[in-house]
Predict the 3D structure of the following.
Amino acid sequence: MAYKVWEVPYVINDEFFDARKQPLYQMDSALLGQLQELKTRIHSACVKHINQPARVQTVHGQIYEGYIVHIDATHLYLKPMPGHVRGFYGPYVGYGAYENVILPLVLYELLVISLLS
């Protein structure tokens, strides 16, 4: 059974926007459809691999390695492998304080997802 990420179609609520003002940006409806399809494909591919190690590269060139711990309609949640956590270390924080980190990665910014096992 295929999981459907998008249950409700996205439409612009005219009551929310003042009709006298032009929007700064409005996504083209064809692009919106492609984006929704992309998110559904990524979700379908990743949901089968929860708790497996993966390498993820974003469209910005960032590379993360960790375990896929969750995926929803908008984000892939990755728990970095030990020693791969980037964080801010202050004078009052001990070693290993940032080992319990989950990275939420936006689905439409993911370029490559590869399993490491």
